[in-house]
Amino acid sequence: MKKLTYTLIMLGFIISNSQAQTIGGPCEGCEALLEYGNKQLTAVDTLPEFETTQPQMVVTGTVFQSDGKTPAAGVIVYAYHTNRDGIYPTKGNEKGWARRHGYIRGWTKTGEDGRYTFYTFRPETYPSRSEPAHVHLTIKEPNKQEYWIDSILFEGDPLITEKVRKSKGNRCGSGIIELQQKDGYLIANRDIHLGLNIPNYY
Question: What's the rounded Cα separation, in Å, for the pair 175 and 177?
Fold first, then answer.
């Protein structure tokens, strides 16, 4: 009985210690970043329904190393968001996290210049209007586990209250951006500073 108790205590310690060392803390669904399968990742991706949905939007930026200045190569950026009805649409045959995240999602991998770009459209807030409209972002650096960063929110959204602003941790920099208009697209520029305000970053 003592041996069993000791084993359970040690197991609990190992699990607890493992969670404590998780980069960025707990992350439900972060492993979705790994679901790109055999897709050859490049610095540019086009999300489903971009061509047929308005307003079209370009999510772009530079991923910087922890010094905030040097471009970071080989970083995978995973993005997903709702459709114009505020839901994560599925087709019914999804597997893995696509059953939750829907099919409006994509992956990029930065080159030497650290740049990434997603061609997509502006998402809508949930029908419940419980949160501002947003684009979820998860990243994975070479030789590190994946972790989530602050979602992209859009300045001017009436659901971005002072409480919402204060709740943000500025993980890898602020995700609250001001959309710009260029060549018929909404431009959402979101630079990413690796490790900035990320718990257990090492």
Answer: 6
Average pLDDT, whole number, for the chain? Answer: 91
Residue 18 identity (one-letter amino acid):
S
pTM for the model: 0.89
- Nearest residue to 135 (alpha-carbon basis) of 146, 143, 147, 124: 124
Contact 187, 154 (CB under 8 A): no
Smallest CA-to-CA distance from 78 within 34, 37, 27, 48 is with 34
User: Which tens digits make up the pLDDT trace of 139-163?
Assistant: 999 999 999 999 999 999 999 999 9
- Between 43 and 7, where is the model more confident? 43
Distance CA 60, CA 66 (A): 19
User: CA 133, CA 118: separation in Å to the nearest integer?
Assistant: 17
Q: Domain 28-193 classified CATH 2.60.130.10?
A: yes
Between CA 101 and CA 170, with CA 202 as vertex, the angle to 5 degrees is: 55
The answer to whether 141 and 72 are in contact (CB under 8 A) is yes
**Residue owning tokens 């690796």:** 194
